Amino acid sequence: MTDPQNPDKKGTEDEWAEAMAQQQAEEGNDETSDDAEEDLWAAAMAEQQATEDEANAEASDPAPDKSQAQNADHEVFKPLDEGASSTTPRDLDLIMDIPVKLSVELGRTKITIKQLLELAQGSVIELDGLAGEPMDILINGYLIAQGEVVVVDDKYGIRITEIITPSERVKKLNK
């Protein structure tokens, strides 16, 4: 219905009818997209079922030819005995020039910032390491050995007294 006083404007009933028609059209589009999603799911489920059926059929078949399996293995994996001795030195050569940081640790301690600011030339810091105790030798921060301090031609050095095994390294980390 239109307003008799203003024929250019639509009546509220016409506006409502138009809005309802538009809403129904949009809902119809949503149902179409829902149908498309259901079709995709149905296709995926059918594909999965087909794959499972093939796997079950292969499992019930007699064992495949062993010679084919061996040929496939030889194509993918190289035998270990061929060239095993030649690969080890070459692989080590790749890492020989990589620099690492070696450090020797006399001991550790924890201090407050106040104590740190009070330090001056000649201050003594008490460490947790005991005199005569072996020094820790670290490579890139990881304990790998212990040793003792030596003096050679007026220079300090360290003599390695013990190489730390991997299991001992783990125990040291827990301290």
From TrEMBL:
Family annotation (Pfam families):
FliMN_C (PF01052)
Which Gene Ontology BP annotations are present? Answer: bacterial-type flagellum-dependent cell motility; chemotaxis
Tell me what topology the record assigns in the membrane. Answer: Peripheral membrane protein
Ranges of biased composition (kind: Acidic residues): 27-40
Q: Which UniProt keywords apply?
A: Bacterial flagellum, Cell membrane, Cell projection, Chemotaxis, Cilium, Flagellar rotation, Flagellum, Membrane
InterPro entries per the UniProt record, alphabetical? FliN, FliN-like_C, FliN/MopA/SpaO, FliN_T3SS_HrcQb, SpoA-like_sf
- The record places domain Flagellar motor switch protein FliN-like C-terminal at 94-164
Keyword Calcium assigned: no
Q: Disordered: where is this region?
A: 1-89
Location in the cell:
Cell membrane; Bacterial flagellum basal body
Q: Family, per the entry?
A: Belongs to the FliN/MopA/SpaO family.
Name of this chain's protein: Flagellar motor switch protein FliN
